[in-house]
Amino acid sequence: MNPVIKIILQRLALGLLTLFIVSIVIFTAVNMLPGDFAEAILGQGATPEAVAAIRRDLGLDQDPVTRYLQWLAGALQGDLGNSFAQANFASFVGDDSGVRTSVAQQIAPRFANTMFLAGVTAAIAVPFAVTLGVLAALYRNSVFDKVANVSTLTSISSPEFFLAYVLILFLAVLNPLLPSLSNIYADMGFGERLQKTLLPALTLTLVVTAHMMRMTRAAIINLLASPYIEMARLKGIKPMRVIVHHALPNALAPIINVIALNLAYLITGVVVVEVVFVYPGIGQLFVDSVKIRDIPVVQACCLIFAAAYILLNLTADILSILSNPRLRHPK
Amino acid sequence: MSSVPWILGAIVVLLAGGWIMRLAGQKLTGNKPFFRDMPLAVAFGYVLGAALVLFGIWFYFQPAVTQDGVPVASVQFFRWAVQGVLIGAAAAYLFRLVGRVVGTAGSRKVFRQMPLTAAFGVLVILIYAFLAIFAPALAPHGQEQVFGQANIVPGGNPALGGNPDFPLGTDQIGRDILSRLIYGAQNTVGIAFATTVLAFVLGGTFGFLAATLRGWMDQALSRLVDVLMAIPSLIFSLLLITVASAWVSGFGLTVAMVVIIAVIDSTRVFRLARAVGMNIVVMDYIEAAKLRGEGLPYLIFREILPNATAPLLAEFGLRFCFVFLTISALSFLGLGIQPPLADWGTMVKDLSAFINYASFAPLAASVPLLAAGAIALLTVAVNFVVDWMLNRSSGLKD
Amino acid sequence: MSDFLVEMRDVRIEGRSDETWMPIINGVDLTLKKGEVLGLIGESGAGKSTLGLAAMGFCRDGVRISGGSVMFDGIDLLAASAEQKRQLLGKRIAYVAQSAAASFNPAHKLIDQHTEAPVQHGIAGKAESAADGVELYRKLRLPNPDEIGFRYPHQVSGGQLQRAMTAMAMACRPDLIIFDEPTTALDVTTQIEVLASIRQIVEEFDTAAIYITHDLAVVAQMADRIKVLLKGDEVEEADTRTMLSEPTQEYTKSLWAVRAFERPEKPPVASDATPVISVQGITAAYGTVDVLSDVSFDIHAGRTVAVVGESGSGKSTTARCITGLLPPRIGTIELDGEPLPLDYRKRSKEQLRQVQMIYQMADTALNPRKSIGEIIGRPVEFYMGLRGGAKRKRVAELMDQIELPADQYIDRLPSELSGGQKQRIGIARALAAEPKFIICDEVTSALDQLVAEGILKLLARLQDELGLSYMFITHDLATVRAIADEVVVMKDGVVVEQGPKRDMFKPPHHAYTDLLLSSVPEMDPDWLTNLLKERGVDNIGDAAVGKMS
After folding, report:
1. What is the ipTM of this complex?
2. What local confidence, expressed as pLDDT, does residue C434 receive?
3. Do B335 and A29 count as a contact with CB atoms less than 8 A apart?
4. Residue C46: pLDDT above 60?
């Protein structure tokens, strides 16, 4: 078999295995909780009948392994269970037959919103960062490079909410160019949705661009010291071609890795930014559920975040394998 | 899009400016290599930079108050920002100057080679450490003390709704903001520092053990770390804190958070310590020590550790920033450091609504930014120092 | 207009270190006529590569030409714009780097890198240039010239890459080629092939060349004239034969004399003597692949056994087996007639003490965070139990033995020492254990020749004084000639020949020993020509193909 295909299959298998173990970790962590959720939800004054009903309803009366397998089987079919908050509400009003939103139904639109935000951010940040990084490497030690170094360090160091409020201050409050709240509805047009998403997207862009730019610069400078770049220059190749034709193909692996790392970082970053801008994404749902300890939702969100994270790292891994001529053309 | 022709026009003007500047430079300097070999794009960059600086100066000297006495908040904020940067740079410059004269020969040499950014970083870190240690003595009021009057405007001018007793005003339930900011240095920085130390003790010990012993222990630890690192750290800590909150609350929850973040973060330290350790373990001097018959403690503490301090110290700075930001983010989300401890992340969350008053009350709006800025300033400072250390140890001249 | 192709006058070059500019070249003249080959030799730090690059008007980062003039065919390279210089590089001046493996871009095929310069300079089309490349590969006797260009650099061996790089330098038929130590990284048998092809192609196209190297014998084969550099100054310059037969300067004479060191022969060992170390039929493997098979030899008290072979021959693996780092799969190792445990962890402190090791790279062999006193003092304390004043006295004695004044050096860190001094510290650390037997792993190969000679003389003296036994691992036959009593020749993990040195340097040999011995360049300028005649030109190509498989 072609060694590249073999390595990629190995990585895929490893990724799946990791996801499986991560799901166990998440499930176990949640089930370490003392006492019973049913009691916790309903509080001290709940009747034993209500507690038992909820317990049966949520499947809490079964042993952990069975519950895990049921949860996993459900998750694989897109069924992430029912939200405790919803269950609580339903039992509270005594209406057991009513229409209850499942976790999956709750998460789906928000997940789409988050993906939209991450997509807009990536579309701005990735080309911007790579261009800046190449320029900084090309003109290293110039004024431009030093200004870029200080400003990217500053923007990496700032907490997301600081950047968010500074942007709100300048672009929403002092100069009302963009809305400071991102209230997004399902049937919104693309243009309006984009306008409302722009401010959170810009905040995230500031954070990830800085990191990607620095790593791109470092990767290219690292290469510029290598003998084959000196050779290219001694062959009288134009400076731009040296960078694009000789340095970039070899810098692809580290650059791809850094992009994936930052897109993965976006997943964490969205949580805070979504809260600041009241953006109806999965991050905000996650934080709200954590606060009211709505375990099925927390569990599901965690699994989605972890899956996206693993998937991105896996993609980066595979892409950098593909960009390596040593692996693509074995001896 | 009506702005497109304007942008295109500006680019053309700047390009022309660059071309003229290069030509003038070539003529005036007798064709020095600097101008001779300058690509047009670089000349464009210089002219663009000059234009931005000029615009900044022009904007800085715009009136901060209209003729009707209404404050022009954008100018006001811009001035504060510029003044802040200038004062910071001047303080760093003075600090470096003092460092070059005072102290031992070794410390003077360090200061001579220090870039301004690193001097700024060291200065800020020293100030924060001072604030954190002496917070109770420095703060005018207690961190939990509630005064009768809530939402006093900062500035201390009674005519504008301020109060000289509370230079930065009071918060929504009437606690002194200045005191809480100072105590925040102790709580936020102290807790983040403790967390990082814990993460390093855990990750460093296991990392070096794995690198030296190899075999099944290395395999087991590395796989465990792989799994833990496959979950985004902020998400994982939020999940675990949710679990922990079922058992403990208040101060106990803060301690739980410290342990949780330290454990999650120690995975990153483990990776680094292991990698650094592996690089050292393959050295011939380690082989020589093994062949001499030296034991494991001698190998780790006398041969490996002295060579790992530089990368570990830099990593400590980076990890501290990361932990500090994570804790601040958790606090901002209301799940980090628990009241009544004053904490910057929580303060930002509580005071964030003031931002919306920026156009008519710039002072009031600056308070939440002050707390957020306090977080940013320290991480920037640490990053400046770490950046300098990494550049120095890698020996990269370019 | 002068008749020189390259004319450098009073060139001064500086390099930046710690914010100040330190001189690298202090006013050197260099001239080169069309079609002439100039050899530039010197030890490390002489500035020969920097000067060679300056002849192209090129400076590495952190280096600048601070004075003098560099003219190439009437063009002032110091006044020329970056664009003008770019037009010359690759087209009229080409460069062949030391490590071809690192100097070919791993992301592109050889032929694409070959055609890049002609295409970019507008000299030839891609197809035309590629066809010419194949022709050049053929001339340089690369195996499969029609298809080798379509491989990536990592798919081609080092010697072949070096020839492909020479072909690439020829792509635009330049007037001048700078060869920067092109064979230093290669094994001797490969070096011959590369030298022969470089010389042939330079002669055929009548290209002028500057050949930079530290190896006198190599430069004697390649150059018409030789210029000797020392720490940025010119020592002397003359045509090759004059320079070899009658050098005028002391420094040059001392360089020439290095190869004459040879220690007197010792009487044969009594036939019933117990060897200090006896290696008996060891076979060792990394993973499941055997890298050593059935290696046996004895080392007697006060004797030196040189283990010779090219890279990958298993000589260092043999050392790892003796020290116990890689326990052999089969076979035994005896110390003074007693079998040693195969794993070093099972050996007693006394057994560990008796077998010491000196490493090739003194930089990685000494802990950079420990002072010289601590490095030498540790085995004194560990094995002899000496502490405080007694330990310090013993360390001073040891430093006396390696000819470094203790009061000056005892508190320094390794980074404050020169390469030769570091190697001496490595020797002192081994001596501190007061062993019977020392393994010397390529101890001189990273050092300049004069320094290396000092180390060899020191080791010889210590052997006479202390009755030590050495196992000397080396690829350099000059070192063998200088210090060995007995020789073991290895190839592919097998001993191909062993015996007293006397017999080894006299025919008849095993075929491989013969190839190895005859491939070592000699100071005679006609040596390569004669050798090629003797072997027959085709033979060289065959040897290359043979190595490939």
Report:
1. 0.84
2. 92
3. no
4. yes
